[in-house]
Amino acid sequence: MAEKKIGEVILEVKNISLAFGGVKALTDISFDVREHEIRAIIGPNGAGKSSMLNCINGVYQPQQGAISLRGRSFERMNSRLRLRTMAEMGVARTFQNLALFKGMSVLDNIMTGRNLHMKRNLLWQALRWGPAEREENEQREKVERIIDFLEIQAFRKTPVGRLSYGLQKRVDLGRALAMEPQVLLLDEPMAGMNVEEKQDMCRFILDVNDEFGCTIVLIEHDMGVVMDISDRVVVLDYGKKIGDGTPAEVRRNDDVISAYLGTSH
């Protein structure tokens, strides 16, 4: 297999501090993400991992520091504009707690990820006539390819609420892929899965990184998964960075061992 080529820095997190009232969620966090890598963020519960992801995709505005994507910074934007701009620049996200439309089919859920790419206005789309109909057919073809890629063809017309949790996670990934992301943020994609479902999701993540060319930022508690698929790992504990490096370097970090991995590892 050809050696994986990691590119230049695409996403930079600089001195990020975030607090809610008097509670500090993140304190002076800095790291970068390189194009085409899988970058993991790990740490115990309450370490600030999801808060960090919320800062990256624009949900939270940190009190200090800046986040830049391809050299562009977003700290002067309001939350709604920041979210939209990040999405338009190619940042997509899955969620730890699924935010799918349970009564809608798999196909329709993934279609919602195409909204930013729809050029016709809502009236045209509602009428489904002429150019709007042609556009919808084109978008549907792209969604069908994602459904094939994720091996969920048999469930394409099934309401998402009827699917197993593992398959719902796959639909959530599909909706994010429908946005055609350059940077894909995955918030605990393996949570609640059995061993077989985790193996499938690992395979899809590696294929997304390789075949789709997505840069991936991943939060995950399963250390076996993290160490197997990540190129670099940043470690948080109580909102502070205590480690950063390759999986091998992180394994040898005494602070990480005592805070997260445990001496038995």
From TrEMBL:
Pfam families per the UniProt record, alphabetical: ABC_tran, BCA_ABC_TP_C
Matches recorded under InterPro entries: AAA+_ATPase (IPR003593), ABC_AA/LPS_Transport (IPR051120), ABC_transporter-like_ATP-bd (IPR003439), BCA_ABC_TP_C (IPR032823), P-loop_NTPase (IPR027417)
Superkingdom of this protein's organism: Bacteria
PROSITE patterns tied to this protein: ABC_TRANSPORTER_2 (PS50893)
Residue ranges occupied by any ABC transporter domain in the UniProt entry: 11-263
Claim: Acyltransferase is one of the keywords in the record: no
GO molecular function, one term: ATP binding
SMART domains, sorted: AAA
UniProt keyword RNA-binding present: no
Alphabetical keyword list: ATP-binding, Cell membrane, Membrane, Nucleotide-binding, Transport
PANTHER family in the cross-refs: ABC TRANSPORTER ATP-BINDING PROTEIN, CONSERVED COMPONENT OF ABC TRANSPORTER FOR NATURAL AMINO ACIDS-RELATED
Listed name of the protein: ABC transporter ATP-binding protein
